[in-house]
Design goal:
It contains 1 helix and 11 strands, in the order βββαββββββββ. The chain has about 110 residues and is mainly beta. The protein has 2 domains: about 1-40, Single Sheet (N-terminal domain of TfIIb); about 60-110, SH3 type barrels, CATH 2.30.30. The chain has a 3-stranded antiparallel beta sheet with strand order 1-2-3. It has a 3-stranded antiparallel beta sheet with strand order 7-4-11, with no helix packed on it. β1 and β2 form a beta hairpin. The longest helix is centred in the middle third of the chain and has 12 residues, at about 35-45. InterPro entries: YjdM, YjdM_C, YjdM_N. This is Alkylphosphonate utilization protein. Pfam families: YjdM (PF03831), Zn_Ribbon_YjdM (PF08274). Belongs to the YjdM family.
């Protein structure tokens, strides 16, 4: 299987190496290999809304009211979430919130406690 990075614009997996840069055949986006190396290093660390690095087992505090999709519940500002787990994907935090249950959160809406 190919070890080439996915396209940063359209997330296509069909990128190819064109000498000094990578090219996406689906959207036509081109980016340098140095940019791909830098983005890989940045994506390895998940950061909260203030830029602090997060790790598995950390406690975080919600900084914005979050509506729970498919429910009438709301996670209020200031809710403390203990023992987070970092996962890959758009919602990069897996956790359990008292009164709500298991949830996935974006790191943009939390700060390290």
């Amino acid at each position: 299987m190919s070890a080439l990075p996915h396209c940063p614009t359209c997330s296509s997996e069909f990128t190819y190496d064109d000498g000094l840069q990578f090219v996406c055949p689906e959207c036509g986006h081109e980016w340098s290999k140095e940019a791909a190396d830098n983005s890989a290093e940045e994506s390895e660390s998940v950061r909260d809304a203030n830029g602090n690095p997060l790790a598995d087992g950390d406690s975080v505090t919600v900084i914005k009211d979050l509506k729970v999709k498919g429910s009438s519940l709301v996670v209020k500002v200031g809710t403390k979430v203990k023992s987070i787990r970092l996962v890959d994907g758009d919602h990069d935090i897996d956790c359990k919130i008292d009164g709500v249950g298991a949830m996935k959160l974006k790191s943009d809406f939390v700060k390290k406690a």
